[in-house]
């Protein structure tokens, strides 16, 4: 499919699959900062509704509901368990610290609640396998909260990467996600606490980078991972900045870098035998309703080497609703199919999550083993 440079492709709300069945009712387990964004996403998704929120403090839950567009009829609870015990809740969103994921996701699945789980999905793949097992045994859908995967730009970029005539064969990928955290963040945020989010920047930002690499490689796992030397850690050993190189048996290679200590950047560069892909805002588009990327095939310069005669083309993708609402829309569609059409849960999303966790684990293992190569086995 030919991509048109500078001609916007627009995804209209009317293009989404609009369910004729009742909207899927979401319950929130916790009131973390990211939950504000997801509550707005549920409100914007055409097939979902904010139904309940629970916190360890009823006052905090009430304040969150009032500040984040929950309808007057929404339930407000002073515990996480109460949300899971609400028989009207179809799906739950868990923005809890990573160390709590396995406990609450497994319990949610046992209560027959479908699960939207923040990333990283677990502290290690063994924990995530417990979550997968609980979801599978209870017939509930599992999806992680990697929002950019659901933007229409992502599928348009994949079309280019899959075009052997324009992009060729994938040879190399680089991804980075960095931001310069405040002093308060570096002292108090849960992402720097070993008992809450022990993976630090690797689990938070590195998750996006590694997902981007796997996405570009059609989710083929690398065979070997070698962490970059001298990662930066805080006084209690939580990673603040790190990177790694990934190798495939066919010669492909990838690198990534993530950091709480560098200026903000979110980039993917994919190099093929015939083409290149560049995107500079893959985690969060510069504009909510418009996103772009650059694609190039067989670039060249003039004979005097003074300018490029074939340049990358900018492709603009527009959407009526943001990527996080598209994520909620997709989960709600899958849940509705399970609830009303007796469909089976979609295995694509937990499979992708598990592969991402496997690579996160390998990077962490390489760091812990003195930057030795680590082999990945499914």
UniProtKB/TrEMBL annotation:
Positions the record marks as coiled coil are: none
Domain Gfo/Idh/MocA-like oxidoreductase N-terminal as annotated: residue spans: 24-143
Looking at the record, the residues that make up the GFO/IDH/MocA-like oxidoreductase domain are 164-277
Gene Ontology MF terms in the entry: nucleotide binding
Listed InterPro entries: Gfo/Idh/MocA-like_OxRdtase_N, GFO_IDH_MocA-like_dom, NAD(P)-bd_dom_sf
Query: What's this protein's family per the entry?
Result: Belongs to the Gfo/Idh/MocA family.
* PANTHER family documented for this protein: OS10G0403700 PROTEIN, PTHR46368
Query: What is the name attached to this protein's record?
Result: Gfo/Idh/MocA-like oxidoreductase N-terminal domain-containing protein
Organism, per UniProt? Vigna mungo
